[in-house]
């Protein structure tokens, strides 16, 4: 399937998360609320098709690393990098931060957020807890982590997680016809 998001042509392979705004608000919410990414070092965790990392690479980021645990997503991202002729982006197969080295100005997590839709060995809240605790080790001073959530499984467990971990965070809420969407901006 071919789609276009924010001027970027994407091929979405079967079995890879489709970031089309008709299907989800997660990728769009991150893209529509990006901080200043110019000359910043970016980590896109759960890259899927690569849309967030590719957008950042094409719009002035100094360096971008896109990661995913899924081989299909890694291959799909590589294809989309070629389609869009992007040079300042690398792709790495990694379970969250397992193989990631270095620190970043911004870490974007586009991870599973609904237990019913994903066949994971842990709950999406546990996955988010693991993501956040590992992200701290890869953030530069004044760096930030961004991730989305929606009202399908409730947002309160995420807020409890953030408060228990003593994270500084802001949240933005968007109401869509079928649910509420949340964008979290987390700092050290």
Care to give the gist of this entry?
The protein has one domain (2-187): Vaccinia Virus protein VP39 (Rossmann fold, 3-Layer(aba) Sandwich). Helices cover 26% and strands 31% of the residues.
Describe the protein's architecture and organization.
The protein has 188 residues and is α/β, with parallel strands linked by helices. The chain has a single domain, classed as Vaccinia Virus protein VP39 (Rossmann fold, 3-Layer(aba) Sandwich), CATH 3.40.50. The chain is 26% helix and 31% strand. Strands 5-4-3-6-7-9-8 form a seven-stranded mixed sheet, with helices on both faces. Strands 1-2 form a two-stranded antiparallel ribbon. The radius of gyration is 15 Å and the shape is globular.
Record keyword descriptors for this entry.
188 residues; alpha/beta; Rossmann fold; globular
How do the helices and strands line up, and which of them pair or pack?
Layout: E1 2-5, E2 8-11, H1 26-32, E3 41-45, H2 51-58, E4 63-68, H3 71-83, E5 89-93, E6 104-109, H4 124-135, E7 139-150, H5 156-164, E8 168-175, E9 180-187
């Amino acid at each position: 399937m071919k789609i276009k998001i924010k001027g970027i042509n994407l091929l979405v392979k079967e079995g890879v998360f489709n970031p089309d705004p008709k299907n989800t608000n997660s990728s769009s919410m991150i893209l529509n609320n990006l901080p200043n990414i110019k000359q910043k070092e970016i980590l896109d965790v759960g890259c899927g098709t690569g849309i967030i990392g590719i957008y950042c690479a094409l719009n002035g980021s100094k360096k971008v690393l896109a990661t995913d645990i899924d081989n299909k997503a890694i291959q799909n991202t590589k294809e989309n990098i070629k389609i869009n002729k992007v040079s300042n982006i690398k792709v790495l197969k990694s379970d969250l931060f397992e193989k990631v080295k270095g620190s970043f100005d911004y870490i974007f997590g586009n991870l599973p957020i609904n237990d019913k839709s994903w066949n994971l060995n842990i709950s999406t809240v546990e996955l988010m807890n693991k993501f956040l605790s590992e992200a701290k080790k890869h953030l530069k001073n004044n760096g930030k982590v961004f991730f989305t959530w929606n009202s399908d499984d409730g947002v309160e467990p995420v807020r409890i997680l953030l408060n228990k971990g003593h994270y500084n965070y802001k949240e933005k809420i968007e109401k869509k016809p079928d649910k509420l969407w949340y964008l979290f901006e987390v700092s050290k």
